[in-house]
Fold this protein.
Amino acid sequence: MNRRRIASLRTLALLLVGCQTPPTAPTAASPPPSRAPVPSPEPAPSPELSPGSAIATAESRPAAPDLKGAETFDAAWTIVRDTYFDASMNGVDWNAVRTELRPQAEAAETTEEVRDAVNAMVARLGASHFGVLPSQAASLVRGSGADHEHAPLAEDTRGTAAPPTSDETGAADSRPSPAGASEIPSAFSESPSTPGSIDLDVRLINGRVLVTRVGPSAVSEIAPIRTGWAIASVGDHSTAALQASLAEQSPAYARFATASTVRRWLEGPAGSVEHIVFEDGDGRERVANAIRTAEEGTKVAFGALPEMNAVLEAREATTEELRAAAPASGDDRLRIGLIRFNIWMVPVATPFHEAIDDYRGADAIIIDLRGNPGGIGAMAMGLAGHFCDRPVSLGAFRTRDATLEFRVNPRRVTAKGVLAAPFARPVAILVDDLTASTSEIFAGGLQAIGRARIFGTTTAGAALPAHMSTLPNGDALLHAVADFTLPNGVRIEGRGVVPDEVVEVTRQDLLGGRDAPLLAALRWAAEEAALARNAAGTAPAAASSL
Amino acid sequence: MLRTRQLTSVVTLFACVTAASAWSPARAQDSTPAKPVPKQPAPPATAPDAPAAAPAAEDLPAVADILAKYIKAIGGEEALRSRSSRTIEAEFSIPSMSMSGNMTIRNKAPDLLVMSMNVPGLGDVRTGYDGKIAWAEDPAMGPMVIEGAQLEQMKRDADFYKELNFQKHYPTMKTTGTEELEGKNCYAVTMSDAGGSETVALFDMASGLLVGMKADAATPMGDMPTVTYLRDYTDYDGVLLPQVTETAMASMKQVIKVKSVSWDALETDAFKLPPQIKALTEKTGDEQIPPLAPATPAAPGGTGSPKGK
């Protein structure tokens, strides 16, 4: 099996499934056809980039005796016909689609060809939250080490290659080997079967694949990796080739596909080493043998989705950050809580609640949803309740037979069961073009009701409540069943949440270690805190009784 | 019997998989788990497998007759009243999402109810009614006190003798026609609660059993049309309960399959409010809540108009 390709499917699936929320669907008055380019399973530039084909490659083995191609295609076609919120099927002649594509499924000789046919069918709707989730996805993504392509830090490679050749400068023209393994902290010496990743985040910015975040467990055997460095290659994978393959795609899809593909390249067995070539801010080549570490967080399995790791980080803004953001404020009493989590799954709910409890006395809270692809939609109502003292609606979703509201649940008790009021001070949310689905419902809803200010770049525009339905061949079909509109009537699908303050990320900022969207949010929060204190008679914001 | 309302939380979590209402019978004396009798022993008025012929509209029976036949079919009033509490262990599933879990439904006379479910990926989802307060608690949504139409729905569900109290819960009832449901000819009884919400209950003409319901289930997100199928009535110590309850809501289907039923073993303590709900209900007014942080005007937002660089 090709673990990396399966892992990419996981990434895509998360974005697609993002909004695992209640269903919905309008009919005659349905909105215009969605053309959201980002997460829709449009034809991929390479086999690696579409869900179906990804798995297809992963399963390029002798065809199963009974692929149930026609049966599976018919079931998927019927499910979509009967549940898609727009009964007019976005104006697509659904019968004609069946007539055209069913023969492909019928003639399929491999499972992946069946999936390709189904994916091609649902892609015709041009909407997000459609795609095939292979039945084996979960086990493949977290499968045995035998499936991994990445070379683990096996004993036979230790000590046999040349030692690191670079110093802090990292300048090197030779390819360092994974030597030095003995210096790897034991925590990284995981079993080859333990999933891991290099703790970096990346984005396609102005045509370059840039490191936008270096996590605390990002370890290079050669030199520290810096934000703002451009990635030239990861192992045998060239970012230039990747970008060339995406040249025909929309910019939004190219950004999404680039980031998800490169992140997939970074995944592999914990303890394995990957050779990465960078270009630093001065145009010099930098190389690193980066070590994959076990993925952090809490494992969670949900429905047909592959197992995921849910991670939440909470901290207070540092003095340095506050000075960088608002040098004029000079207020050392300022307290701003920062909460970041990677996916809307239940394991983050309690840590989020506890973080809110920690920051009840803070002047503001900033929630970082950059790169967050969504998850369980109902969590948007539960988490938004920490900031709303009334059961206001974040928006409505419409199925064919009902309209339901994403009504927040005001959170009036602490995690320990003590009566408390929802946080009432300023809230900022950071987003980017990989912020999708439930994250968009949360951010867009709080923005629309005037409860949060949004910073960053326009989100993915992929926010259709979806279901997963099992198909005759054992795969699951992810299919949108509802449309979603914000309280102000704005539709997110295909549009995204437009920040109140658009803050583009530049390479220069990254090289300088500046997180521009965060700094903008901190600046605003500091200003709001100053206004509040002035209004309250200059006294520092009093901590709540908690 | 419908197991519905209790699933509100889960409903909100997925695709609004609620049910309509929870009607459950009761009876007997011992508290040992009743052994399911693998057949449907309700004495039908006609041949068990042959759908009864649909009567002409003018021949529709009175609601009272339909209900009387139903009560008799599930064991009779005496059997129902001989029980005072019940624990149902069941398996819950949403097949289309490959999700399943265990659930426990505890119900005690006169109107105490706690339903708990453990759903992989969602954690423990609980809801209940203690005779005064209806509540729900799940990791995604947090704790909440249920009010409005949901509260009324929960009160009905919590009534241990709900099958005997149709008139109380539905002041208006009328036999409105016949329908076929899963091969069974049924009488359709349209029932309206005090708030005017309608439920159509379908009683099998042959067996007298309640085999289906159509209603708008109240959820925290609004009303959701549901259709519930009650199948495989099984004798649990003299009281018949549907072993399988399937609820279709939107494009999803949820199935509850009873694994065991035990009677008369529940103490009132089992229905105490969870700590977080208790804290919520101790509030009698906002003045009891720790003071809000100074309210800063919310960000303008909402327009979506870029203002940045």
